[in-house]
Each structure stands twice: as C-alpha cells, then as structure tokens.
Amino acid sequence: MKEQPIELAIETALKKRKYLSESKARYLLRAALAGVYIGFGIMVSYRLGEYFYDSHSPATPIASSIFFGLALVLIIYGGGELFTSNTMMLTISTLKKATTWKDTLENWIACYAGNMMGAIFFGLMLMMSGLFASPEKSQYMMEVVSMKMNTPGTELFIRAVLCNWLVCLAVWIPFSVKGDGAKIVVMLLLVFAFVVSGFEHSVANMVLFAIAILVPHPDTVTIAGGIFNLIPVTLGNILGGAFFVGTIHVYLHSANTVDQLYSQKEASRQAVYRQKAL
C-alpha cells in the first residue's frame, strides 16, 4: 500500500534527525549545500532578469522567476537541507510524537546556520568570479535588494508567511505525485509562484544579501538592512511552514484517520449482515 504524505513527511524528518545526531559537521555541510544550490538559482534568475531590466521590459519579474525553481530541485535531489521546508517536516513529526520539540529546535538552528554558511560561501565565490564586478551588470539585483532591506517589518512578515506556505506545498504536494518528472514540474510551478508574487524567503534572502554586500553596491544595501529583513522574514517563514502546512495537515490527517476507522467498522458491519443473510 502506498504511504500517505504524512507518513512520508515523518519518515523524512526522522532521517534528518538521524543525519544531525550522527554527524553535526556533515549535517552542516548538507545545509551549506542547500545555500549554494539556492545561490545557483539566484544567479540564473538575476543574470536573466538583468537583460529584461536593461530594456525596461515589464516582463522582468516574470523572466527572473522562471528558473528559480531549479534551486529546490537541486536541494531535493542533491541531498541539501533547507531550513524553510524543515519547519514543516519537523513540526509534523513532532506533533505526531515521532520527534520532540528539542529535536525540532536543534534541527532548525543547525539547518539555518548551515544555510547561512552556504550563502556566505557562494557570495564570496561570486565576488572572486568578477561576474558582478561592474555595477551595470547588477542593477536589477541591487534594486530588488534595496527594496527588501527597506520594506516595513510587518509587510515582510506577512510576505514570508505566504512564501513558506507555498514553498512547503512545493515539497508536500509531490509526496502525492507519481514520477520524478511530474514532481519536478510541480516544484518548478509553485516556486515560480512565490518568486513572481514578491514573497520573502529567508534562505534566498541570505544568499541574495551575501552576494549584494560582497560585490560593488549602492549605499542602500547594508548589513544592518539585511539583518532588519531576515528577522521578520525568518519568523514568518516558520509560521508559514510550521502552522499553515505542517499543523493544518496533521489536523486534517487526524480527521482522515477517524474517517478510515469508521469506514473499516462500517465495512465489517456490512460483512456480518451479509453472512447472516446467507
């Protein structure tokens, strides 16, 4: 019998706990790889978007969002550990008593730290590559970063909730989809939806800010601005993944379990009636 999505989420969370308990260094490396993979997605997005931005095309946000989903594909199939999706996974496993809240917090802290390490590493690599050495090649990216660093905290929080709601669905829904090709299409579409909508993703912002701060940038791009953004965005991502996907689906699964038990009892009762009739 095919495993239910809730069971697959718990199984995945238990693997994550095992990875962290066996070797914190290897787990941090997995998380750092996720930061790097997001960096590849950002690189493609903003290099492509710059061509549209320079020609003043209204399709710039669409063009820069199309291929960002490849970052999630790289993470899922490349063995990375992403903080935002882990907010859902570990919440589900903990509410179902497979893990503890201590396990959850340890995972979130380690994964967030590893993602940050990967973000800084990727930013340093890009700085040394010289690809953004000329300000003319990063105008679109700097405009987006400046906007993110100067948006009110309440708005950032709500955008972050909506963002991780979609991102976690991009991980959750493929649990019910057959075939890797179909899973990848679902991931790409849902990630495209969150990027083009202008929502806020803490790990993507880490990488974006690391790149923007390390290469030539305007005065509106600062470390303080990055911290100002990441605090409400991280909290919003936690709420979006842990509650709006993780907690809600645990609640719905409980209702489904009751329905299944009722159906089983009803089937048994009908079988008894048929036997008596014979």
Automatic annotation (TrEMBL):
InterPro entries according to UniProt: Aquaporin-like, For/NO2_transpt, For/NO2_transpt_CS
Bilayer topology: Multi-pass membrane protein
Source taxon at top rank: Bacteria
PROSITE patterns: FORMATE_NITRITE_TP_1, FORMATE_NITRITE_TP_2
A GO cellular-component term linked to this record: plasma membrane
Molecular function per GO: formate transmembrane transporter activity
Principal place of residence: membrane
TM regions (residue ranges): 27-46, 66-88, 109-133, 156-175, 187-215, 227-252
Keywords: Membrane, Transmembrane, Transmembrane helix
Localization: Membrane
UniProt xrefs under Pfam families: Form_Nir_trans (PF01226)
Family from the record: Belongs to the FNT transporter (TC 1.A.16) family.
Protein name: Formate/nitrite transporter family protein
Source organism of this protein record: Mesobacillus subterraneus
